[in-house]
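TASK: fixed-backbone design
INPUT:
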C-alpha cells in the first residue's frame, strides 16, 4: 500500500512539475506572440514613414529644379540693386552740386536764404 501511495505521490509530483513547465512555456509562447505582433505593427508604421520620406524627397527635388529656374532672375535683381545703389550715389552728388550752385546764385544775386 505504501508503494501505491509513493507511486501516486510521485505521479502527482511529475504531473504538477509538468503542469508548471507547461504553464511557463505557454506564458513564454504568449509573450513571443505579443512581441511578434508588436514587431509587425512597428514594421507597418516604419513602412509608412518610408513612403512619407520618399514623397518628401521627390518634393524637395521638384523645388530644387524650380528654384534653379529663378537663378537668372536673382542675378538680374542683384544687378538692378547694384545699379540703383550707384544711381542713388550719383543723385546724392548731383543734389549736393545743385545745392552748392543754388547757394552761389543766391549769393551773387543777394537773395536771402529761404
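OUTPUT:
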Amino acid at each position: 500500500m505504501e508503494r501505491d501511495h509513493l507511486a501516486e505521490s510521485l505521479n502527482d509530483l511529475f504531473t504538477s512539475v509538468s503542469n508548471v513547465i507547461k504553464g511557463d512555456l505557454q506564458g513564454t509562447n504568449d509573450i513571443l506572440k505579443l512581441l511578434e505582433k508588436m514587431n509587425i505593427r512597428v514594421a507597418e508604421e516604419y513602412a509608412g514613414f518610408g513612403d512619407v520620406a520618399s514623397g518628401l524627397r521627390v518634393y524637395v527635388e521638384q523645388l530644387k529644379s524650380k528654384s534653379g529656374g529663378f537663378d537668372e532672375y536673382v542675378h538680374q535683381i542683384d544687378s538692378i540693386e547694384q545699379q540703383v545703389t550707384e544711381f542713388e550715389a550719383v543723385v546724392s552728388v548731383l543734389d549736393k552740386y545743385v545745392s552748392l550752385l543754388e547757394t552761389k546764385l543766391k549769393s551773387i544775386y543777394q537773395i536771402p536764404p529761404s
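COMMENT: The CA atoms of residues 15 and 84 lie 98 Å apart.
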